[in-house]
Amino acid sequence: MKQPSCPSCGMQNIYGKAMFFGVDFFGGIDKNTDLGEGHTAEKVRNFVITGTERVIPNFFKFKLGKKVNFSVWSMLFPTAKFASRKMYKEAFLSGVIEIAASLLVLPLARVISQTDFNGYAELYNLIYSSNAGLLLMATIGSCLTIALRVLSGLFADRLYYKHVIRSLTEIDAKTEDENEKF
Questions:
Q1: What pTM does this model have?
Q2: Which residues, given as ranges, of the chain have pLDDT below 50?
């Protein structure tokens, strides 16, 4: 028995029981559209697998010259988002920055937690009467966290686009090398 397939893109239903209800896995982009370096939307869909209805239109915009795309999830969880996309270098760098930023804020947080205060005015006075070095470290840590999250929110999808195109190019080169050996 032949498995049912999507009427718009032809993708096979691997579960057998589920039905397709007009899901466009290409997000309105033709499956033969070049998304960069000769890689078609269909090839990108097969590599990305999940969320292609959102990813492929963004990749098409990046190919046309768009530089920035805002992603809330990348802003809120940069390390997890990079790791889930198998962008391990970016995930590692993001994680190191987050840990370093937390370590910079930690001494001031410790001073605050060891002090009793009543109300925000006393907290304000406590923070600004503490060691200037602690305040500077906490400020740098907070700025690092904010910068990481804003930059990740704006450029994570673009980095993912470059990662996918680079990976597909490497796969094609490796496949060609293996074919030449035979």
A1: 0.80
A2: 1
